[in-house]
Write a structure and sequence with these properties.
Elements (H helix, E strand, L loop, with lengths): L1 H14 L4 H28 L2 E3 L6 E2 L3 H6 L1 E3 L2 E5 L6 E7 L4
Antiparallel strand pairs: 1-2, 1-5, 3-4, 4-5
Length: 97
């Protein structure tokens, strides 16, 4: 849904004759809900459950920026464990036990 808005705005901005500043403005406006949507999704992702360290099995809640910048595949992220300080692919777990 959000990406549909973004795509149509970028499409309009690219193909309709208009001033350059208006073109840029349209693209920026198109990106705002997109960025907010992603930021919100990551926030929920960060708050719900824990990540389990692949090396030592430590379970923890990562910081927002950790989640934001970590490489990820599905619900697994490559992050540094605060317990053993080793980087590994960390699986998302819902419960701490
Ligand atoms: Zn660890």
């Amino acid at each position: 849904m959000v990406s549909a808005i973004l795509l149509s705005l970028v499409f309009v901005a690219s193909y309709v004759q208009m001033e350059d500043w208006l073109r840029v403005l349209l693209i920026v406006i198109g990106f705002i809900p997109f960025i907010i949507g992603i930021a919100w999704a990551i926030r929920i992702e960060q708050k719900a459950g824990y990540y389990e360290c692949g090396k030592c099995g430590h379970k923890y809640v990562p910081t927002y920026s950790n989640v934001l910048w970590a490489m990820h595949m599905m619900r697994t992220r490559y992050m540094k464990c605060p317990n053993c300080n080793k980087k590994s692919w960390q699986k998302k777990v819902i419960s701490k036990k």
